[in-house]
Amino acid sequence: MTESILIIDDNEDILDFLSVVLGGSYKLHLAANGEIAQSILDKEIVHLIISDIMMPGIDGFELCRLIKSNVEYCHIPIILLTSKNTYKAHIEGLEVGADAYIQKPFSSELLQVQIANLLKNRRKIKEHFASSPFEDVRVMAHSKTDEAFLKKLDEYIKANIKDPNIDIDMLAEHMFMSRTTLYRKIKSLSSLSPKELIDITRLKKAANLIARNEFSFYEISKMIGYSSQSLFSRNFQKYFKMTPNEYFDSLPRE
């Protein structure tokens, strides 16, 4: 999947320059001001934001503050660009939640490395969560808001884990979000679809039950909402790269 970057700057030359520098590696969305940026965030999955600070209307600091306080977008890393060469501006950028702060004029190489590092760190966390049987969903949280969101989502799935029909509509109703907003949030935060997140939550519960060694694989598949043991075994291997039997054999014995 090509990651997408939202670039916000009222200077057309900067937008053109960044389009040339980043266009070959990422899907780009361009906005001349905060209002346009908001409408893009409401429609698209965005993995990273680059914003100028000095803009008419909503400036970069205020935009950063708004994004980081909104549960729908607060997980998105933000790089602020500024011509202000002062500690006060740098501190203010960090206080409103910016993940990186780059002074103009800047080297395109420095910007590319910052972007790559932020996205790589997010990817590593997502991959670790998806492939580790015991890793908690909150490992993917990048803020207290994200942590509360993931905890509420996780608790609902676990409370209804025996139901084979849990779907995105049930999740959206519980989270008081529209279906599309919830899909964007989960996909951007975890790189998983809501269905995949539900599957992984089921399988992590299964890993816990296998470790307890109290139930057969057939019983466990029913307890976590699978209609068949073979489907359970296939999905377990798909995510954890081993069968339930291999997983059981790998566990330490007292």
TrEMBL record:
Gene3D superfamilies (UniProt xref): 3.40.50.2300, Homeodomain-like
One Pfam entry name: HTH_18
Transcription regulation keyword on record: yes
Domain named Response regulatory: residues: 4-119
Keyword presence, Methyltransferase: no
SMART domains noted in UniProt: HTH_ARAC, REC
Family annotation (InterPro entries): CheY-like_superfamily, Homeodomain-like_sf, HTH_AraC, Sig_transdc_resp-reg_receiver, Tscrpt_reg_AraC-type_HTH
Keyword annotations: DNA-binding, Phosphoprotein, Transcription, Transcription regulation
Source species, domain of life: Bacteria
GO MF: DNA-binding transcription factor activity; phosphorelay sensor kinase activity; sequence-specific DNA binding
Signal peptide residue numbers: none
Residues with PTM 4-aspartylphosphate: D52
UniProt cross-references to PANTHER family, sorted A to Z: HYBRID SIGNAL TRANSDUCTION HISTIDINE KINASE C, TWO-COMPONENT HISTIDINE KINASE
Protein name: DNA-binding response regulator, OmpR family, contains REC and winged-helix (WHTH) domain
Residues of the HTH araC/xylS-type domain: 151-250
